[in-house]
Amino acid sequence: MKAPVCLESRRWLFDRMPKSVAPYKACAGLGINPFGPVEGRFRESERVCKAQSVHHRFSVRHVGCIGGRGQSGKEVELRIGAGWRNMVGVICGLLVLLLCAPSAFAQANMGAQARVLEAGTVLVGGRDTLALDISLSQPVPYRVRTFSAPPRLVIDFNTLDWADVEPGAGAPRSHVRAARRGQLPDGWSRLVLDLGAPFLLTSSEQRVDPDSGQAIISLRMKRVALEEFERNAQDEQRFARLSGAAYLHPEAAPAPAPAPAPRKPIVMLDPGHGGIDPGAERDGIREADIVLSFARQLREVLLRRGRFDVAMTRDADEFVSLDGRIRAARAAQADLFLSLHADALPEGLATGTVIYLLGDEASDESAAYLAERHDRADMLAGVDLTGNTDEIARVLMSVAWQDTAPRARGLADALVEGLGDAGLRLHRRPIQSGAFTVLRAVDMPSALIELGFMSSPRDLQNLRDPDWTLRMAEALADALELWQERDTAMQQLLRR
């Protein structure tokens, strides 16, 4: 005959359990009630009278309390004789300690500072798989997400101390290019894995050792097509499920998108001549080749410094009309136009670098000669320059030019200053003007730089010297940076 459930005997056991044991209190507070029904963990299943002894059989079932998910634990059966009745409280207290302590401590410590343990923290890459195990001194709330462009795995942890553990070591660079970690507000920390390929998260779990209370977060990923990765990268609900949603705090409002990087000024480099127009020639050397080589060198210097973006009207030995050069600068939305030349004068007396600006009258005979010579190259190529002089006159009278001309003069001053500081030889009149068709774009400061004159033996030697051309390129880059600083300050002042 089955004995009735004896609530009094249960309460007698309850009263004799060591109340000071923190795990017991935690279990009781979490709903592990020794007086409940079968789901209440303690159940008097049978009472049998045998002579002078009363045997009580108790079944103790532990149900995990982490994350609200039930986990079947151990069943322990006790047979307690009448002579040992006074020890029941102690024994049941020990049972509670053994069976409830890991879960109780885990729940109680979810907000305490946990540590990453180097032993057990591994990142392993297979052919098409990636596995990450993070060993912790205790369980912590965490969340997992992936982002595209480029592919990244992002894991946030609450109250976690990384110490000196580096979780990114172990996987090949084809799988993980880099790993970085850092602190976030409100006690959270973040681990970011820059993925070498689109690896999609397939599972995520946190396992707790019932004996030590330590935990391991295990993430498993597989390589997928980029399209599938991008489709899933922003699926927050899916990753909330994989991340153990019961652990998560409410998501904070997304951080504002970072402000776009300021646009770099664009310098349009215009290597003169090219194709059917070789420019000046001396000793089998063509001006078109010299200025193209220098333009490439100057482009590399400017790009390496990172202050400017660079475009070129030509990057090969090809003919580009004067109008085509202006159109290329406007199409690139250039902020600055530099035409590069190394001409020759019949007299052979000119030497040193000269900066030419657009003007209605030539500053001297050599400026007039050079402007006419540059236009003649277009005429030889069949370009119609009828009315070109009138067009330059209209440019000089335009309202737009009144705004651009002072900026162009500031550019010329900065170029001369930069070349002088570098100890490079300048013409005795380093800034001149002329009706150069290629400079007639009114929407950007423009200048024509005669790097040197091939009619001068000294200049020709310099133009062929790689060390000299590098010095020239560095000096021009210094000058452009100086002009940019001055011009930006002036434009801000004019806007006030």
From TrEMBL:
InterPro entries: MurNAc-LAA_cat (IPR002508), N-acetylmuramoyl_amidase_3 (IPR050695). SMART domains: Ami_3. The keyword Hydrolase applies. The keyword Cytoplasm does not apply. It is an enzyme of class 3 (hydrolase). One of its GO terms (cellular component) is outer membrane-bounded periplasmic space. It catalyses: Hydrolyzes the link between N-acetylmuramoyl residues and L-amino acid residues in certain cell-wall glycopeptides. Its EC number is 3.5.1.28. Keywords: Hydrolase. GO terms for biological process: peptidoglycan catabolic process. Pfam families: Amidase_3. One of its GO terms (molecular function) is N-acetylmuramoyl-L-alanine amidase activity. Residues 326-481 form the MurNAc-LAA domain. This is N-acetylmuramoyl-L-alanine amidase. It comes from Roseinatronobacter bogoriensis subsp. barguzinensis.
